[in-house]
Amino acid sequence: MPRITADQLKQRRQDFIEQAGIAFDGMLGSDGQNGLVTFAQREERACELGDAMTRRLLEEHLEAEESREPDAVVDCPICGRPVACDATEKIELQTAG
Questions:
Q1: Number of C-beta neighbours around residue 86 at 10 A
Q2: Mean pLDDT, rounded, for 46-56
Q3: Which of 9, 58, 76, 96 has the smallest set of CB atoms within 10 Å of its CB?
Q4: Which domain holds residue 44?
């Protein structure tokens, strides 16, 4: 499989930055509060948005890793999408979910 090109990487970075902006707006909104009043509400929203960004970064990294032939494919425990790996017995994908 061909490696990701510099142009593709640049586009993926731009897409990620746009998603980060959407997450920022989801947290702060136009008034800096976005209807979040209690600390628990703020924490829950921040964790949800942060977890989504973490999953996106993991997906991007795994999709960009095209330079090797995978020995095995397993399903991600978070999103259910197939993930290539070298040793299935060593898989411990840990993201908050």
A1: 11
A2: 94
A3: 96
A4: 6-69
pLDDT for the residue numbered 88:
46
Query: What is the rounded distance in angstroms from the CA atom of residue 54 to the CA atom of residue 49?
Result: 9
- Domain assignment present for residue 87? The answer is no
Is 58 part of any domain? yes
What is the separation of C-alpha 78 from the centre of its chain, rounded to a whole number of angstroms? 11
More confident residue, 12 or 91: 12
**Alpha-helical segments (H) within 1-97:** 6-28, 39-64
Domain contains 59: yes
Distances from the Cα of 21 to the Cαs of 26, 28, 31, 63, 97, in angstroms? 8, 10, 15, 22, 22
Residue 36 lies in a domain: yes
Considering its fold, how many domains does the chain have in total?
1
- Asked if residue 91 has pLDDT above 70, the reply is no
